[in-house]
Structures are given as C-alpha cells and as structure tokens.
Amino acid sequence: MDKTDEKIIEELKKDGRMTMKELGAHVHLTGQAAAARVLKLEDEGLIESYTVRVNEKKMGYPVHCFLNIYTDSLNHQPYFTFLENHPSFVRNNYKISGEGCYLLECRFPSNEVLDEWLVELNQRVSYKLSIVIRS
C-alpha cells in the first residue's frame, strides 16, 4: 500500500458513492486506474465494505449511551440472548479488557424506554451507564 492507496481510502471514507472518475480526479489518476486500485484494495481485504451512515436522531433514536457490562458468572448466554431480543437498540457490543466484560453502545427513542430496558438488562448482568452529551 502506497500513499496513493492511502489517499484513495481517505477519499472513499468521505464519500463511498463517488464515481471512479471523481475519485481519480481527487488522487490524480484516471478513473480506470483508480478503479483498478480500488479493486486491488478490496481483493487484499483493506476495503471490506461500503456503508451508509444514518442520522440516528432523525431516525427517532436521540438517546445515545454506552454501558460497561459486568457479568456475574462465566455463562454470558443470558446477556447475548437479551441483546438478540432487542436489536433495534444495540449498535455495537465489544468484548473488552479492563473495566467490565463488554462495552455496549446503544440508541433509544427516549429516556423512559432506556429505563425500561435497563430494568430488564439488570436481571441478567450489572452495568455502568454513560449517556453521550455531545458527539
């Protein structure tokens, strides 16, 4: 991977929908040369996928929070089952080292819904909640 490949990745992070001609203009290549480089980066696994970033507030999920999850036993399946049953709220679940067993990122439509969800979660694991003030 060279500097041009790095620039291609940076440009695609800004706008993954740009045409190869537009990308080429940004990185001083022809559209065809840019497309060839993108295919190579995909084949090498450096570019894994393309995605859409959604405005969560406009989608009805203004409450953004992180939870450090603490399990009481070695059996984490009740926690995983709970998450599977509430997929609309869970954004990311990371197994971590340090404080807690997992770092859970969630979005909720209101503090009331968050509170109800936390009551259910607390039947399976302990947690420490952090609400995002500004991102």
TrEMBL record:
PANTHER family: HTH-TYPE TRANSCRIPTIONAL REGULATOR LRPB, LEUCINE-RESPONSIVE REGULATORY PROTEIN. Pfam families: HTH_24. Keywords: DNA-binding, Transcription, Transcription regulation. SMART domains: HTH_ASNC. It comes from the Bacteria. Residues 1-62 form the HTH asnC-type domain. InterPro entries: AsnC-type_HTH_dom (IPR000485), Dimeric_a/b-barrel (IPR011008), Tscrpt_reg_AsnC-like (IPR019888), WH-like_DNA-bd_sf (IPR036388), WH_DNA-bd_sf (IPR036390). Gene3D superfamilies: 3.30.70.920, Winged helix-like DNA-binding domain superfamily/Winged helix DNA-binding domain. This is Lrp/AsnC family transcriptional regulator.
